TrEMBL record:
Top EC class for this record: oxidoreductase
Taxonomic superkingdom: Eukaryota
Keywords: Chromatin regulator, Dioxygenase, Iron, Metal-binding, Nucleus, Oxidoreductase, Phosphoprotein, TPR repeat, Zinc
PANTHER family per record: LYSINE-SPECIFIC DEMETHYLASE, LYSINE-SPECIFIC DEMETHYLASE 6A
TPR repeat placement: 130-163, 318-351
PROSITE patterns registered for this protein in UniProt: JMJC (PS51184), TPR (PS50005)
Polar residues: bias regions: 434-445, 487-507, 548-560, 624-642, 723-732, 746-761
Location of the JmjC domain: 1032-1195
Pfam families: JmjC, KDM6_C-hel, KDM6_GATAL, TPR_8
Gene Ontology cellular-component terms listed: MLL3/4 complex
Bias (Low complexity): 690-711, 768-786
Matching InterPro entries: Corepressor-Demethylase, JmjC_dom, KDM6_GATAL_sf, KDM6A_B-like_C-hel, KDM6A_B-like_GATAL, TPR-like_helical_dom_sf, TPR_rpt
Name this polypeptide is given: [histone H3]-trimethyl-L-lysine(27) demethylase
Length: 1338
């Protein structure tokens, strides 16, 4: 691939040089015209540029010793743009690709994006160019357009797994998936980067740190501890990595109970954090963690000093202020605690713990009305997991408040200002001025007479949170600079422009004087004349202060925080905040009410692991990597966040929940950003891609127009290949959700959705002069079609390229239908011809035999079926067949009906009765008697209504389906199942004895809403119980042989019976034990095979199913909700599906009913009662089933997901065992054999040329298919095994690409050969199309 790319670049450079000579001749013949000063490239310069592409990005030091290369690139860009302008767009698309590379290396990202998109719009087979896709991915990554960057990078690895920058791709994919909370995918890509011996942006130690931290986020604490400690043993560990590792290790020991007893854990945590601060004394996050640890063991002064250091090092941090408030409250200094909490909630309006602690403080000071307001604010935070208890507490306080008489309430003195007054108080400088901590430490030991709690507490009071009036206007603190409107104001008014905030006047009352005012008011009747005079002065001053504050709020009401025009994006005025580790909103024990006032009850240390993940900002990655040892100098990393310096770079806590501040977007944070980056890209927000509506004549275009890099209002010239249909642009054919994102006019960061502004819309304008006939149809439609990849790389029938997509009528399908033209290559060459063609491959991998160069475009998501269904057809009736006797079950049309693609799901009613199946063999009682100690996987879930899925707090619907995994035995789960049933009976009896609710109570929307949203109880679902052992489950498996052949576990017509080994749960039986509410989340079956599911009873199950053509839309819904469609756990929101016109089949499966899920059907289900189910997969011997299985095999490869069915291995077994009469099925299998044969021979030739011999290792009977232990792709015939594992006979297999990444010369590997080439050739040649048999199905 590399050599092919270089040759194209050389050709482009030479054409450019020749074009320059031609221009010179033309200019000489026009003496009357002034000669233009057009730059020209010499032959030497052209040769140098031919070796330049995107793979040099980050490795070419243009700003240091690469000045000459930078000058050459600048000259090349001018030359290319000049040529493109003069050629009026009639240039080879390769010029645009090279121009994109040059601009990328110069870090001219808008121009690079524009040139790449022009290349993409002109080059139909652009997906073959790995360097183009890599460069495009890098530009998207720069703009935080992760959705598109991930797609581009995945396609590079798909078409060229041995790409020279594969390690860099895996690294960046790992970072992006980590930000997107897809931790499994992130871990896999970091591990792939780690085994690669090539260089990349991060060092090996940094990658190891990310892997260890991913273990921690996934709650694999033992593995995380081992990984952190192993990393600390590394020699010459960079200080920043060491500091970050010790920080994470220390905090993890403080928060995770299973890592030891509390005393030892805290001691070890403090030791780690102190060592971390030795490595990086400026880490505010480590100081904060150390303060939390000191606070938990009662070292109040040490905790306070640590918090003060944290504020000094990391600017504003809501968590630190909240913790300071807890310390003050514990020391009985309520006024100081109040101000600290106010600081916290002003820095982060959604800080639930601070609001709860503030409410508790007000409640302890007998100010229930203010406490209620604080609790209500806490419940509004999406980070509060204690909503139900808070709501009960609010209700209790409201009732208590209403019962108090107004007069008696007025007579009581207020210890604290109310919430509105507190919000407007000036913040004193005692703790916020950026001075040395020594003065703080000294003041901590001095008595403070003005402190509200100085005479109380445990003998060691903290420095008061007050200051003299002359310091009241000090604005050095970020907390003060973030003064905002009262929480009672609307959210849009709450964040004002920080730069416009005026200084606090020095005549404002200090907190000390406000407290004095309250005391004087309370004792007005007994005051002396001097005290009355002081009271009048203070009240007058207070009135003036309130009036001034009101005027300031009115003046600043228009200063709402600006947002970028493309929806959720970066804050226009970034909120400087350090890493936030929000403590969970734990529910304290009940006393006089649901929430008694206890000190610091919401901010207890040790309730939360460190979610402040050291995420790398994309722009922190150096664009010009020096040497691996110098990478840290160019990273600008900050150990306060591990490996990232930037505000709020952490996105997810260790439990996977987000920790975004209120400055993030309302939908949970932008999905296309690494953290909350506080800066937009370095380029100005200029429209480098013109909008579809803008038009311009070529004469008015500037030199940038050639690459669509024009300023505002300037349109590019039209390219020769620009499609022109009925006067509309190519944008009319684009699907808004699938078009490649283009930079908007105001925002160079790409919007997550780019509606009509696709790449072609940015380059094609109806007002431009077209060089192609106006009546010619659009050559490409942007609507992607179904993915039709093939096993072993077989070409798809109608697969679509990733960004540019062909209409079905123009799609080349030569790979899947016989050729009748002499100018094309038949897919039926003999094996000898194939091997001969492989042997004559040149060193550069090129050959004149086109079938050997045949690459398939990466698979794409299918488009939504068109036309969309009417709303009244979105709940279609589920096909149901009622059986009365055995004859009905074996009636051939039943098989045909079930496997008909137009029936996504079929319910066969009464099957057990018709076939006299003894379902009692699968009852819980029989299972316990047969194998009581058999292993059961348990999923702990929330019991919810089947058509809804709420988060744990019950506040909002979501797609993510939460569950935790554990293991038990059949006997123990049977006890739980029975106990659950008895408890349900008891609850029913209790309900019968209670008074029936009235109609008005039932219809109350609030009551219904509260009842629906929880709180939800937990249920345990016994899943994936393997019943494949014929010795243990002989009677059960024999009973299933009564089923008709098409539905049996094993049959000649079942593709999975030809795999040759067991695939648990697919060609073996699995059992499920359920209680009401047990959920099987949404999914398609592995490799799109059919599934059989029988309900044993006694309860029912409810099912939901979506037809296979809509799986692309389901995948996009998962992507929008930050869930991995293939590996994540999700429960669709029916409202979302109906709004998108997705039909949903919904039905009840009763005991004895068989559910047949057809090929590729998306489904999910929930138990209504107590029941058991059995299921397995079936592969009908049809072209449709094989085609969809191969499509998913290729899609899995693109997504780096293991295919459970080894389609290459299965295809060769089918060729050996089955006579195929279906022409389409035969073509697909034959082509898979052809590709595999070619691949085997090519690898063997490469091994021979490298002097590497293969070792004969005959495949044994029932030996499973092999997968790469690193990347999990199927490995057929030639197994690359490490020498160590070979000597131990453990055979750890790798694919060729992974083996060469570890050692380019394959040192330390042996290659095992499982099939003789002669045997494979014989199978290939003998596999031929059998005559059609006119026999009925059985």
């Amino acid at each position: 691939m590399k050599s092919c790319r270089v040759s194209l670049a050389v050709a482009a450079a030479r054409r450019l040089s020749a074009a320059g000579d031609e221009e010179k001749k033309m200019a000489a013949g026009k003496a009357s015209e002034p000669e233009e000063d057009s730059p020209r490239l010499s032959a030497q310069e052209s040769d140098a540029l031919a070796r330049v592409d995107s793979s040099l990005f980050g490795y070419q030091r243009l700003h240091e010793d690469g000045a000459s290369m930078k000058a050459l690139l600048v000259k090349a860009v001018r030359c290319y743009e000049s040529l493109i302008l003069k050629a009026e767009g009639k240039v080879d698309p390769e010029f645009f690709c090279q121009l994109g590379h040059f601009n990328l290396l110069l870090e001219e990202y808008p121009k690079a994006l524009s040139a790449y998109q022009r290349y993409y719009s002109l080059q139909s087979d652009y997906w073959k160019n790995a360097a183009f896709l890599y460069g495009l991915g890098m530009v998207y990554f720069h703009y935080n357009a992760f959705q598109w960057a991930i797609k581009a990078f995945q396609e590079v690895l798909y078409i060229d797994p041995g790409f020279s920058r594969a390690k860099e791709i895996h690294l960046r994919l790992g970072l992006m998936f980590k930000v997107n909370t897809d931790y499994e995918s992130s871990l896999k890509h970091f591990q792939l980067a780690l085994i690669d011996s090539n260089h990349c942006t991060l060092s090996k130690a940094e990658i190891q740190f990310h892997i260890a931290h991913l273990y921690e986020i996934q709650k694999r604490y033992r593995a995380a501890k081992e990984a952190y400690e192993s990393l600390l043993q590394t020699e010459d560990l960079p200080a920043q990595v060491k500091a970050a590792t010790l920080q994470q290790l220390g905090w993890m020991h403080h928060t995770v109970e299973q890592l030891g007893d509390k005393a030892n854990k805290d001691s070890y945590a403090i030791q780690c954090l102190q060592k971390s601060l030795e490595a990086d004394p400026n880490s505010g996050q480590s100081w904060y963690f150390l303060g939390r640890c000191y606070s938990s063991i009662g070292k109040v002064q040490d905790a306070f000093i640590s918090y003060r250091q944290s504020i000094d090092k990391s600017e504003a941090s809501a968590d630190t202020w909240c913790s300071i408030g807890v310390l003050y409250q514990q020391q009985n200094q309520p006024m100081d605690a109040l101000q600290a909490y106010i600081c916290a909630v002003q820095l982060d309006h959604s800080h639930a713990a601070a609001w709860m602690d503030l409410g508790t403080l007000y409640e302890s000071c007998n100010q229930p009305q203010d406490a209620i307001k604080c609790y209500i604010n806490a419940t509004r935070s999406k980070f509060c997991s204690n909503t139900a208890a808070l709501a009960a507490r609010i209700k209790y306080l409201q009732a208590q408040f209403c019962n108090l008489q107004h007069n008696s309430l007025q007579s009581k003195s207020k210890m604290l200002p109310n919430i509105e007054e507190a919000w407007s108080l000036p913040i004193p400088a005692e703790l916020t001025s950026r001075q040395g901590v020594q003065s703080t430490g000294q003041q901590a030991c001095k008595p403070q007479p003005g402190s509200s709690g100085g005479a109380h507490g445990s003998g060691q009071s903290l420095p008061p949170h007050v200051s003299p009036l002359d310091q009241a206007d000090d604005q050095s603190s970020p907390a003060k600079r973030k003064r905002t409107a009262s929480p009672a104001k609307s959210s849009t008014e709450s964040w004002t422009n920080s730069s416009a905030q005026p200084p606090t006047p020095n005549w404002y009352l200090s907190p000390q004087k406000l407290q004095l005012l309250e005391q004087l008011r309370a004792n007005r009747s007994s005051l002396k004349p001097l005290q009355l005079q002081m009271l009048e002065q203070l009240e007058a001053q207070l009135s003036a202060m309130h009036l001034h504050q009101q005027q300031m709020r009115q003046n600043s009401s228009g200063q709402i925080r600006a947002s970028l025009p493309n929806g959720p994006s970066l804050p226009a005025h970034p909120v400087p905040r350090g890493p936030a580790v929000r403590p969970s909103c734990s529910a304290p024990p009940l006393a006089n009410g649901p929430l008694p006032p206890s000190v610091g009850n919401n901010h207890t240390p040790g309730t939360r692991a460190n979610g402040d993940v050291p995420y790398l900002h994309p722009n922190a990655l150096p664009h010009n990597c020096t040497s691996p040892g110098d990478t840290w100098k160019s990273q600008h990393l900050n150990s306060a966040q591990g490996l990232q310096k930037g505000p709020g770079s952490h996105w997810a806590g260790p439990n996977g929940d987000r920790t975004l501040s209120s400055s993030a977007s309302a939908d949970g944070g932008p999905h296309n950003q690494v953290g909350l980056s506080a800066t937009t890209p370095s380029e100005p927000a200029v429209n480098h891609l013109s909008s579809p509506s803008s038009t311009s004549s070529p004469a008015s275009s500037s030199s940038q127009t050639a690459t669509s890099g024009a300023p505002h209002g300037t349109a590019p010239t039209k390219e020769s290949a620009a499609p022109q249909g009925n006067g509309s642009t190519a944008a009319n054919h684009h699907s808004p959700e699938r078009s490649p994102p283009a930079a908007s006019a105001d925002n160079p960061q790409l919007s997550k959705r780019s509606p009509v502004a696709s790449s072609r819309a940015n380059h094609v304008h109806p007002g431009s002069s077209a060089s192609s006939p106006a009546s010619s149809p659009s050559p490409r439609s942007a609507a992607p079609a179904a993915v039709n990849g093939s096993g072993g790389g077989a070409c798809s029938e109608d697969s679509r390229s990733p960004l540019k997509l062909e209409p079905p009528e123009l799609c080349i399908r030569a790979a899947l239908k016989p050729s009748h033209s002499s100018s094309t290559v038949s897919i039926y060459p003999t094996s000898a011809d194939v091997l001969k063609a492989c042997r004559i491959l040149g060193k550069n991998g090129l050959s004149s035999i086109s079938v050997l160069l045949n690459k398939c475009p990466p698979p794409r998501l299918p488009p939504p079926p068109s036309p969309p269904l009417a709303k009244d057809k979105l709940n279609p009736p589920t096909p149901s067949i009622y059986l009365e006797n055995k004859r009905d079950a074996f009636f051939p049309p039943l098989h045909q009906f079930c496997t008909n693609p137009s029936n996504p799901v079929t319910v066969i009613r009464g099957l057990a009765g018709a076939l006299k199946l003894d379902l009692g063999l699968f009852s819980t009682k029989t299972l316990v008697e047969a194998n009581p100690e058999h292993l059961v996987e348990v999923r702990t879930q929330l019991c919810q209504p089947a058509d809804e899925n709420w988060d744990a707090s019950g506040l909002r619907k979501q797609w993510r389906c939460e569950s935790s995994r554990s293991y038990t035995t059949i006997a123990k789960y049977a006890q739980y199942q029975a106990a659950s049933f008895q408890e349900s009976l008891r609850e029913e009896n209790e309900k019968k004895g209670q008074k029936e609710p009235s109609d008005s109570e039932i219809t109350s929307s609030e009551t219904v809403s509260r009842r629906r949203k929880g709180p939800f109880k937990q249920v345990k679902f016994g899943t994936n119980i393997d019943v494949s052992d014929e010795k243990k489950w002989k009677l059960q498996l024999q009973e299933l042989s009564k089923l008709p052949a098409f539905a049996r576990v094993v049959s000649a017509g079942n593709l999975l019976s030809h795999v040759g080994h067991s695939i648990l749960g697919m060609n073996t039986v699995q059992l499920f034990m359920k209680v009401p509410g047990s959920r099987t989340p949404g999914h398609q079956e592995h490799n799109n095979f059919c599934a059989v599911n029988i309900n044993i009873g006694p309860g029912d199950c409810e099912w939901f199913a979506v037809p296979e053509p809509y799986w692309g839309m389901m995948s996009e819904f998962c992507e929008k909700n930050n869930i991995n469609f293939l590996k994540g756990s999700w429960w669709p929101n029916l409202e979302d599906l109906y709004e998108a016109n997705v039909p949903v089949y919904r039905f009840i499966q009763r005991p004895g009913d068989l559910v047949w899920l057809n090929t590729g059907t998306v489904h999910w289900g929930q138990a209504i009662g107590w029941c058991n189910n059995i299921s397995w997969n079936v592969g009908p011997l049809t072209a449709y089933q094989y085609k969809l299985a191969v499509e998913r095999y290729e899609w899995n490869k693109l997504q780096s997901v293991k295919s459970m069915v080894p389609m290459v291995h299965l295809s060769w077994n089918m060729a050996r065992n089955i006579k195929v009469s279906d022409h389409k099925l035969f073509e697909m299998i034959k082509f898979c054999l052809l590709r595999t044969l070619k691949q085997c021979q090519t690898i063997k030739e490469a091994l021979v040329s490298a002097g590497k011999e293969t070792i004969w290792h005959r495949r044994s009977r029932d030996e499973p298919a092999h997968y790469c232990s690193i990347c999990e792709v199927e490995v057929f015939n030639l197994l690359f095994v490490t020498s160590d594992s070979y000597s131990r006979k453990s055979f750890v297999v790798q694919c060729q690409d992974c083996a060469r990444k570890g050692s380019s010369e394959l040192d330390g590997f042996v290659v095992l050969e499982q099939y003789r080439m002669e045997d494979l050739m014989q199978v290939y040649d003998q596999f031929s199309l059998a005559p059609a048999l006119h026999s009925s199905s059985s």
